[in-house]
Design goal:
There is one protein chain. The chain is 41% helix and 20% strand. It contains 14 helices and 15 strands. Strands 1, 2, 3, 4, 5, 6, 7, 8 and 9 form a nine-stranded mixed β-sheet that branches. The chain has a six-stranded mixed β-sheet with strand order 14-13-10-11-12-15. Strand 7 and strand 8 form a beta hairpin. Helix 5 crosses helix 10 and helix 7 packs antiparallel against helix 8. Bound molecules: adenosine-5'-triphosphate and magnesium ion. The site of magnesium ion has 4 residues, from loops.
């Protein structure tokens, strides 16, 4: 019975003159989300409202689930739109609407009329009263409840008239592309895809970097990261995934630095390279899935040492979350099943039996000097040979 959706958006409505930027970004992202849905759609804006209108037959459930993934949307209202052909016509259409939408008439309701144009011959109050009366005449089982109605029937008088009574919650947040871009360090684990999702939710466009170490890490481990990027892109839009060959750097560290500091030193080089790649593509920050105390490399001391090489802000949205809280989000966003596939990533190959938990920055820097002769070339090669995959 529905051919269109009325899209409600929250925070972005209050951005003054920048509002059109937000609306346009939202529209672009809605089109992106609907690409995978059976059917064709047109997305339009009209004075503070965005409409998704189907121009072919379409799969309703698929369309709703796609729209539920679009950041910036707070509500998705399946709407019936009619031309203004007088109040009698309107009430016929409303009665028809209620009849179809609610086969069982045992509920309470309230009419909530609003006029966006004041030349309509009745005011909102009068519409509420008169429409309420006509509905009660048509369906005597109905009851009015103005405080807590089961069904809140909205009638919006605009150029056309909108009739709707359901609001499916959207994800909230801000439309992708309204807040600049950041570089996500994406591993095959549970945490980093969640971190990317959380930052993308605030409107940030995501680029990603994955460090692999062939032949120590397999092609399958890389594919797992591509799959994760693809799942994040459902929400974040197309993602450029940089795949950095990290093998020679890891081997050099392994050869020249104390083994209990391997992970920290390796993490510092990851941050340096990710930041360099980020600069090349205008990123304004880095994103990691670090959480305080989760492993040796994420104690406060370790984070201090890792962070020390970064000049860009590093966003760590899951920093205060327990593992289970992160898992809950990963299940919700659909990355969990992929994240738990058992393919080794490069961190697990070169880990020491007893990594330092309280690394000392001075000592770490001293040991990094062991790499002086080779590291510049290795970094340069790693950056230059980075493979870029566009994932969507
Ligand atoms: P898990 O979910 O198992 O904790 P993880 O990869 O998030 O996996 P760590 O190995 O402790 O956990 O890494 C911490 C953070 O460092 C990750 O969240 C990620 O942002 C970054 N990172 C780690 N390894 C890589 C890698 N191979 N490529 C890109 N980023 C990585
Ligand atoms: Mg982790």
């Amino acid at each position: 019975m529905y051919k269109a959706f009325l899209i409600k958006y929250g925070e972005i409505g209050v951005k003054g003159k920048n509002r059109y930027i937000f609306e346009d970004a939202l529209i672009k992202q809605i089109y992106f989300a609907l690409e995978k849905v059976d059917g064709e759609f047109e997305v339009t804006k009209e004075s503070g409202r965005i409409y998704v209108t189907s121009i072919t037959e379409f799969d309703y459930d698929e369309a709703v689930s796609a729209l539920k993934n679009v950041f910036g949307i707070i509500g998705i209202c399946p709407v019936v739109q009619i031309e203004d052909e007088g109040f009698d016509n309107l009430s016929e259409k409303v009665i028809e609407y209620i009849d179809k939408a609610y086969p069982d008439k045992n509920f309470t309701f309230k009419v909530d009329a609003r006029r966006a144009r004041k030349n309509y011959p009745m005011n909102s109050m009068e519409i509420n009263m008169e429409m309420g009366g006509r509905l009660l005449d048509a369906f005597p089982e109905l009851k009015v409840d103005v405080h807590k109605p089961d069904v809140l029937l909205s009638i919006e008088i605009r150029n056309k008239i909108n009739i709707y009574s359901t609001e499916i919650p959207g994800p909230g947040g801000m439309p992708i592309g309204t807040a600049g871009k950041a570089m996500l360090l994406l591993s095959g684990g549970i945490d980093s895809p969640v971190a990317g999702y959380m930052i993308a939710k605030r409107g940030v466009q995501i680029e990603a970097t994955y460090f692999h170490a062939p032949p120590y890490t397999s092609e399958r481990a890389k594919q797992k990261v591509v799959d994760l990027a693809k799942q994040v892109s459902v929400y974040a839009g197309p993602i450029v995934l940089n795949v950095v060959n990290f093998t020679d750097i890891q081997l050099a560290i392994y050869e020249k630095c104390p083994h209990d500091e391997l992970t920290i030193i390796m993490r510092r080089y990851m941050m340096r390279i990710a930041e360099e790649l980020g600069k090349q593509s205008n990123c304004m920050g880095l994103i990691t899935g670090e959480s305080i105390g989760q492993v040796a490399s994420q104690t406060m001391h370790s984070l201090y040492c890792t962070n020390e090489v970064c000049t860009m802000p590093v966003y760590r949205p899951v920093i205060g979350f327990d593992k289970q809280e992160i898992i809950n989000i990963s299940e919700k966003i659909g990355t969990y099943e992929t994240s738990i596939q058992p393919f080794e990533d490069c961190c697990t190959i070169f880990v020491a039996k007893h990594p330092v938990t309280k690394p000392n920055i001075k000592i770490i820097k001293q040991h990094e000097h062991n790499l002086d002769e080779v590291i510049d070339d290795l970094m340069k090669t790693a950056i230059e040979t980075t493979e870029k995959i566009i994932v969507k």
